[in-house]
Amino acid sequence: MRKITAGLFIALDGVVQDPQDWHFPYYNEEMGTAVDGQLGAADTLLLGRVTYDSFAGAWPERERAGGPDSFFARKLGDARKIVVSRQDLTFTWRNSEVLQGDLVEAVTALKAEPGGDIGISGSVSVVRQLLAAGLLDELHLLVHPIAVRTGQRLFEEAESTLPLTLVRSATLETGVVHLVYGPGRQLAGGYEQAARHLPEDAQD
Predict the structure, then answer these.
(1) Mean pLDDT value across residues 163-182
(2) CA 20 to 30 Å from 81, out of 20, 40, 96, 112?
(3) Is 202 inside any structural domain?
């Protein structure tokens, strides 16, 4: 079974919109290694339409330019890219195709195919749907020490909670915290249980 991982740049207040406006000052070699470990390790990319358009508008040119980011750009270009969209699209970036059919059904089938990891970058609506369906194996959050205070947040309001399990964490030199979550289970308990763990007055 293939593993699906998603990576997002996220502010301290949960904002994930337009990270290009606030996250570049924090991007260093450590973060590059974290991104490559999640996205660069995948041989298939699953992207929402907006994220795909952003990538397709930048990475092919960066590959042709041959700059310091051309190696990563070539890795993205060589990967199979599946775009979640209800529209018929015309692609100019190689190895690109539209996801066919229902998202959950198609991704379930994709996980069962032979191959390496399936990576997601950004694509918030896709991440939300796969989390809700229990299809996301790892959620990589690069939490930046900044409150953007406006814009779309990762988690929408909902009537049910979404428990996750912290798989690992690391603090980068810039103060960014790399958190990796996997599926979790809902814990039971209330205040009476918590009260047993409150500190007691040790004085006579």
Answers:
(1) 98
(2) 20
(3) no
